[in-house]
Design goal:
Blueprint: H1 16-25, E1 35-37, E2 45-46, E3 52-61, H2 73-89, E4 94-104, H3 110-126, E5 130-138, E6 144-153, E7 169-173, H4 178-195, H5 207-214, H6 220-229, E8 235-238, H7 243-254, E9 256-261, H8 269-278, H9 282-288, E10 295-299, H10 304-307, E11 313-321, E12 326-329, E13 335-337
Parallel strand pairs: 4-5, 9-12
Antiparallel strand pairs: 1-2, 3-6, 4-6, 7-10, 7-11, 8-10, 9-11, 12-13
Helix pairs in contact: 2-3, 4-5
The chain binds adenosine-5'-diphosphate and magnesium ion.
């Protein structure tokens, strides 16, 4: 489906490990004061002075987390960075460094890794993080990428999952469900392509949701916005597995209950129309679809005036005592329990 625009194929064996690492990493520049030594020694050296250090790591495996038949390598590199930065922003921290480790089989030529690193570089530049190291090794089956992100935060600003209090407002950034519907479109087009390889897909009606799937953006801007508005959330988590499981994480760790209002959940019009086309309930997609990388937080009622009317932040419910349980209040004003159904559970949907 993705056309090979770069037909040159240099086998990795032509370079060897040392030259390969050099080739992929020699253009990385350091921009943070906290990076004392980046790539090139046995270990990186960091100095965060008085800041708290935030660290998060993720592993992405070909065939489990991504499918190279419709994910261009450049996008994969970009997304792999976003997934990690998102976890750092969910702590109300600023990301400062990443490490990148890859295991790669010999079916990948050098040019493929150049594409992957082009995406990683773009993400690192745009989000201002230093690439300070990693590891490179071979794999017998496909591509594995592990990224670790580091960030810094003042001790007073750090936000955990465990701070939500009854009567707090539940707030979500952006809109949700798009990445899951984008995946449905890409998987449908892959099937069409298998039947007729000359059939290039027309994705113009689905640009927003396909981009949400292939090129998600971590919400650094929301962390900056909250600081500007002088709002410190009482708890926060990023939405990687779907709203329902993230709401449950916040409630369990804060020992509270929640009421989420179906009619308040922010959905893009393209999500609504594509759900209609696929005959899937858009609320189900918002609750259980994953990979939106928006931020879900709780804020004190006192801060409501500061976020009111901001197009980036939507109040979708409020926190209750834990005995009240976790519920979705439907448009028909029925209360249904929120149950755990992560991203994986969606594989069974039509
Ligand atoms: P070692 O033998 O000590 O593991 P390497 O030769 O693997 O050292 O790595 C040399 C330098 O290059 C180190 O600074 C390491 O962090 C960095 N590095 C190795 N692989 C990668 C990669 N895929 N991406 C970014 N940096 C890397
Ligand atoms: Mg190494």
């Amino acid at each position: 489906m993705i056309e090979d625009k770069n037909p040159k194929r240099t086998p990795l064996s032509e370079l060897g490990e040392f030259k390969l690492i050099e080739h992929l990493t020699n253009h990385f520049k350091i921009s943070h004061k906290s990076t004392v030594k980046g790539i090139g020694d046995d270990a990186a050296v960091l100095n965060y002075a008085k800041k708290q250090v935030v660290l998060s790591t993720d592993l992405l495996v070909e065939g489990v987390h991504f499918d190279l038949s419709y994910v261009p390598l450049k996008h994969l590199g970009y997304k792999a960075v976003m997934v990690n930065l998102s976890d750092v922003y969910a702590m109300n921290a600023m990301a400062t460094q990443i490490t990148v480790s890859i295991a790669v089989s010999n079916r990948f030529p050098l040019e493929a890794l150049e594409e992957l690193y082009a995406g990683i570089s773009t993400a690192a530049d745009l989000y201002n993080v230093d690439v300070i190291g990693g590891d490179t090794t071979s794999s017998t089956s496909g591509l594995i990428i592990s990224i670790t992100a580091l960030g810094e935060v003042d001790e007073d600003d750090e936000v955990l999952r465990s701070g939500a209090k009854p009567n707090d407002l539940v707030v979500v950034s952006g809109d949700i469900g798009g990445a899951y519907m984008g995946l449905q479109i890409l998987e449908r087009e892959k099937e069409v392509f298998k039947v007729n390889p000359n059939n290039q897909p027309d994705l113009s009606m689905y640009t927003y949701i396909v981009e949400r799937q292939l090129k998600p953006e971590a919400r650094k801007d929301i962390v900056e916005l909250l600081k500007k508005l002088e709002v410190k959330p009482t708890s926060m988590i990023d939405i990687s597995d779907g709203l329902s499981s993230e709401v449950m994480h916040l409630c369990k760790q804060s020992n509270v209950g929640v009421d989420i209002y179906e009619n308040k959940i922010p959905l893009d019009p393209q999500v609504i129309s594509t759900c209609e086309e696929f005959n899937i309930d858009s609320t189900t997609v918002a609750l259980n679809g994953g990979e939106d990388y928006e931020l879900l937080m709780t804020i004190s009622q006192e801060d409501y005036d500061k976020i009111k009317g901001n197009p980036n932040l939507t109040v979708i419910g409020y926190v209750t005592e834990s005995e009240r349980g976790m519920h979705l209040v439907t448009r028909a004003e029925e209360k249904i329990p929120i149950i755990a159904k992560g991203w994986n559970a969606l594989k069974d949907l039509p």
